[in-house]
Amino acid sequence: MLPYQELAQLNKLVHEPARLSILTALSACTMAEFLFLQELTGLTKGNLSSHLAKLEDGGLIAIDKHFVRRKIPQTTIRITAEGRAAVDNHWKRLASIHEKIRKQGAHNGHPPASFLE
């Protein structure tokens, strides 16, 4: 399979930029609070909530909503083992694809030799 075809086959749940940002941040910690993730990613509350719901539906994260001192809502998010594996695999695949493209010369602005014939 050509590396360009591999790019089109990436897991779209993980590859979407906001979700990749969320998963990458969560892979670096045990858990994170909603407001911390919002600040870290720069997403609006609604946008972050939407992406978190998709990731939770996909089994890549777990969300816990509870109250602190009985009245302050707090939402914490943690990456699941499946989510950690998915984001690690995604970054490895991107690096591999990038290396294949670079070796073909496309990264340097030169088309592969087969295109010159």
Automatic annotation (TrEMBL):
<feature type="domain" description="Winged helix DNA-binding">
    <location>
        <begin position="19"/>
        <end position="97"/>
    </location>
</feature>
<dbReference type="InterPro" id="IPR011991">
    <property type="entry name" value="ArsR-like_HTH"/>
</dbReference>
<dbReference type="InterPro" id="IPR036388">
    <property type="entry name" value="WH-like_DNA-bd_sf"/>
</dbReference>
<dbReference type="InterPro" id="IPR036390">
    <property type="entry name" value="WH_DNA-bd_sf"/>
</dbReference>
<protein>
    <submittedName>
        <fullName>DNA-binding transcriptional ArsR family regulator</fullName>
    </submittedName>
</protein>
<dbReference type="Pfam" id="PF13601">
    <property type="entry name" value="HTH_34"/>
</dbReference>
<dbReference type="InterPro" id="IPR027395">
    <property type="entry name" value="WH_DNA-bd_dom"/>
</dbReference>
<dbReference type="GO" id="GO:0003677">
    <property type="term" value="F:DNA binding"/>
</dbReference>
<keyword id="KW-0238">DNA-binding</keyword>
